[in-house]
Amino acid sequence: xxxxxxxxxxxxxxxxxxxxxxxxxxxxxxxxxxxxxxPGAAINLADALAAPDVLRPYLSNWADVVRYFVxxxxxxxxxxxxxxxAGLLQRLLDYPDVRSVMLSAPSPVTDGPVLxxxxxxxxxxxxxxxxxxxxxxxxxxxxxxLRIESFFPMDEETRRxxxxxxxxxxxx
Length: 172
Known about the structure:
By secondary structure, the protein is of the alpha+beta class. It has helices spanning about 1-5, 25-35, 45-50, 60-80, 85-95, 100-105, 140-145, 155-170; strands at about 10-15, 20, 115-120, 125-135, 145-155.
């Protein structure tokens, strides 16, 4: 699934948003925004989104994205009742501005099944929407814990940037 999503980003995370795998599109996006990743470093995408110094500075619609995301983690915490998920929720709410965003009125754009995300760095704007798939089977509870998040371009400019990144990485 990750390979089929190329050149656009896709990641596999566990139920607490710990990154398990990422395709090259996801690596290129993150490295474009925040610089090279440390090999083998543990990455929690929830923290990367909510923290003031990772992805937030590049997300033009951060308030909408974090509100949508924290609502999902709130539902997860209620559903699984685990201390780990409750701890994740508390950690997210403790980041600066997250609680105030949660009290503000939601944008109608984030009311649907897909989440628009707009990244801005320098003169480059990347407009993506994201979907999350969960795999479930009564025979494998571990599989139900996995989520596959796929990002899709919302415009031709974004599509072109990801294709150009792929072409330039093949040349190196």
